Amino acid sequence: MESMSAITVPELEACRAVVFDTDGVITDSAPAHATAWKAAFDPVLREHGQAPFDATEDYRRYVDGKSRLDGAASFLTQRGIGLPFGDPEDPPGTASVCAVAARKEEEFMRRLGDGSVDAWPGTVRLLHALYEERVPCAAVSSSRHARDLLAHTGVRTLFQTVVDGNDAAHLALRGKPDPALFLEGARRLGVPPDASAVVEDALAGVEAGRRGEFSLVIGVDRAATAISAGELREHGADLVVGDLGELLAPEAR
């Protein structure tokens, strides 16, 4: 990357490409995902006499950054609830892992339809700075709706490529914390991981960046607590910021 006056972090300036997670990093869709998961999990938890799903801590620890099926299985296993896996075509419900994942999908699509999801302003400013410097960027997500989200929020044209849940299924890419999604994004940009940065807000995501041996892993801590920032670092973040606008010079924020 050539000298970038708008960017104040030398480690990022040294990178030739940037791979961004989507939910929570580019778009503020994490609350919609969290409330959709709560609507899917709470009926199961009631049936088993357990406490409700915590849309902040349980979301961050067990489902954030993971595919629907991986997230459903991860949380239910953590609670010791042994539902059968079921079939990916199971209708929304509580009888199987697939049924719970389908309920989450149904709830998320309902929330997405109300138009409440936007792009984070600081991220948009950073994307424009990278775009102006001709630094290629990829958007990565385990969600099958990533392209729709990026188009809806008006930032799709700032990315040279998108790797989403549809690509993951077609290419048999494993979900985070496996680095396969990020590595595919870097491959499509034509830049090796050791010359690329990863930007993530999920624990599984920063761990994926570390496992993929990316040059720089930036953790985005929307919770802005000492505990959450520390956990991002423990899982692999080299740098933690509350908002990506912090990476820009004051006049560009």
UniProtKB/TrEMBL annotation:
Keyword Protein biosynthesis appears in the UniProt entry: no
Protein name per the record: Beta-phosphoglucomutase hydrolase
Pfam families to which the protein is assigned, alphabetical: Hydrolase
Keywords: Hydrolase
Molecular functions (GO terms): sugar-phosphatase activity
Keyword Hydrolase (UniProt): yes
